[in-house]
Amino acid sequence: MSAVAAAPAHGEAPPSYSVLPQVAPFLGVLAVAITLPFISNDYWILIGTRAAIYWVLVSGLNLVVGFAGHLAIGYVALLALGAYSTSVLVAGNVLPPLPVFGALPIAAIVGAVFGVIVGLPALRLRTFYFAMSTLGFATIVTQIALAWQSVTGGGIGIAGPEFPEPFNTAQGFYYLCIAFAVAATCLTANIAHSRFGRGLIAIRDAEVAAEASGISKPRVLVAIFVLAGALAAIAGGLFASLQTYITPDAFTFDLSVLFFIAILLGGRGSILGPLLATIILTILPEFAAPLAAWSTFLYAVLLLVIVLAMPGGIAALLDFRNRRPLATHRTILPNPAALGGVMRKTIGQRTLSLRGITLSFGSVQAIAGLDLDVHPAKIHGLIGPNGSGKTTTLNVISGYYSANAGTMNLGADVLPPGRPVLRAGKGIARTFQTPRLIGEATVLQNVMIGGTIEGQATFAETLLSLPRNRRDERRLATKAVDMLGIVGGMAALAEVRADRLQHSELRFIEIARALMLDPDFLLLDEPAAGLSGDEIDRLAALIRAISGFGTGVLLVEHHADLIFAICDEVTVLNLGRVLAAGTPDEIRSHKDVVSAYLGA
Amino acid sequence: MLASIIASGLAAGAIYALVGITYNTMFSTSRVMSFTAGQLAMLGGVLGSMFTLRLGLPTLAGFGLTLFSCAIIGVITEFVAVRPVLKSLDQHLYVLSTLAIALMIQQVAAIEWGTEPRPFPRLIGLGSGVWDEKFWLPVGACAITIAGLEYLYRRTLVGRAFIAIAEDNFAARALGLPERSLRVASYALAGIIGAMAGYSGGELMLAFFANGALLNFYGFVPVALGGLGNNRGAIIGGVSLGLYQQAANFLVGGIFSSVAVFTLFIVVLLAAPQGLFGSASARRV
Fold first, then answer.
1. Domains of chain B in sequence order
2. How is A457-508 classified by DSSP, letter by letter?
3. What is the pLDDT of residues A467-477, one digit of tens each?
4. Do A297 and B103 count as a contact with CB atoms less than 8 A apart?
5. Quick check: B266 and A311 CB within 8 A?
6. Which domains does chain A carry?
7. Which among B92, B97, B283 has CB closest to A127?
8. What pTM did the predictor assign?
9. Which tens digits make up the pLDDT trace of A347-367?
10. Structure ipTM
């Protein structure tokens, strides 16, 4: 009970949402970076410059690998692309020579374009394919750099760009690179802490739920690839200048491995972790000369150790907050009366209606000519034995399956089949049979994902953290904390990693996420499964309150008591067909239903 | 020119197809795509050259030792990088663990063998011009491998057990098949097939540590073309890729042949994500 007692009252600001503890470590790193030239020599300034340049690339790559979970192993290719673009533009091999600060933005655009091209397979396929496409790109960029002699100088190479005063000294250039690194950190952190960053993690760990929340994978990913590609190319321009002379040999695959492993060593979904890891990995080979030759081997061993022994990386080591024990004997205590503060005030007018829906998988007919109406402010129960097509029906409504025949309408509008991402925009939210939450994200972040489509700030606004983005974030966070309190009295758990909670809590958090949308229709897939008797009673009151505020609820359940207690209408399915439909009282005495359930 | 395009295209294609089959062999029993496939082929060339030219062993003994060493490396991969991550297959940790092993193999080869391409022994000394053995050896190795695999899968009990595990892992285990030993065996087999690719292609590609990363990619393209786990698709895909790449090489020059292959790869992935011969994906919700 203690956790519940500590819950903040409705409307209060999110707990521990202050910025300082999060920013302090970054300021510490920056302070060390700024003082470095005063306490050391040119050699360490060189190492520091290198680390800063690597971080410009890694910070962008971190969104791709650490947040979106796409294994980009060949990003050295984009570094090479940026290095050559800048050098060639400054040298004037192709066009009239440009000043270096004019060449860098162009290189960034080139990097952005190729970042997207390399990322295209990731839009449809996961993991190995994308890893391969980046690896393939890394292979061909080096080959092209070698073969295209008139532009790149082939194996002889090309002079890197020189920066104007005051950046042409070792120290001046170092501070320039630090400035770029700071900018890259801010930009990527803004994205990471916005609905875009949460959307990326959602796509990574709970793609189906992300789609149901209206997160469009291609749109978010392309934006990220643009950003990561541009940052990598800028890093390349700086790298070329640091090298003073570049040849294809400078862009070995070993560098790619360093970038990639920095992120995994740092920990997924963190910015501080990869930053520290980048610094560590850059310095590591400097401590012992023999290590330098074996550095890639060392990185590979490190990679294996991370994967097998510490998947959380540095970020998990630094995550003190989630090592604190949680209160035991937590009780879920919904407060349905407060729903009015966040939910709609008017009852929707449209009815969700299915007519003649038919769907078969191979020779198995999952749904055969289903008619179903879900009315606003009513609870519609969908029951039936296992395999009768209940969840399949929900999946057809949410667009995961396209029906072979039949129509779906929302009022007068046709609901397009097979487009799950569009459902949130149509006001349809849902929960899943097994809760689909992001274990590595906090409870608050999980709930905020439900409100993603309400965000108004564009990607560019978010990148710069303009007022509209901050307004979005504040509004979403406040609403999410309120929602947690209303749905289960769980506001005190907002900052806890979702995978530390118990099953019943996850069920209620899913409902909170779905309600963030303020949905016209809420589809609940066995919400009572695994709950205790008390919890089921509270769930019943909550569902009734939700429908009381105008939301139409479609409830798939095995607990007949719950169905008969709260539903206004019940449809019974058997082998994909409607066995019976009517009020709970009619269903309870329906003899076919009794025989299907009791086997009599 | 047509003759040289076909000769070198078929030879390169056969090597790519063999690497593709190496991927598939590991995939079929474990659902894991392993980055070691290309490295095994690289080792086939490097070890072959080392045993025969540097250590002066007879060709046949060198060949046998090469296959044996690669089989051992296959088994080590299974124990170190595949078995520990199998229980969380959906997190795709195998991409990282097998990449780590692949990088280790590559780095050791680079340091112990050197970063320059070195000659590979002339094995038989038969043929010249477009009929040179460096062109037909890979094709022959590919044909022998296919025949061997067909015999294994269709005529032997072990081969049928492989297929059973590939088709339905749970059912196969429920029937009492020794899933774990079969998986280890398939990794050894993959090592042998990869070594065949590198050894037979040694005269064409030389003993060069960087062949590993290259073959990782070029050998994966046939798998992407043909669909995961589909050996027939990998062979058709590999041979087409070889011909396509060599035609581009002769017609538009070296720079653009790699661009052409990369473009083909991206286009195929976007147009037919499951491969041209693959089957549709399973249910998600």
1. 2-271 (1.10.3470)
2. --HHHHHTT-HHHHHHHHHHHHHHHHHHHHHHS-GGGTTSBGGGS-HHHHHH
3. 898 999 999 99
4. yes
5. no
6. 25-255 (no CATH), 336-598 (3.40.50.300)
7. B92
8. 0.88
9. 667 899 999 999 988 888 889
10. 0.86
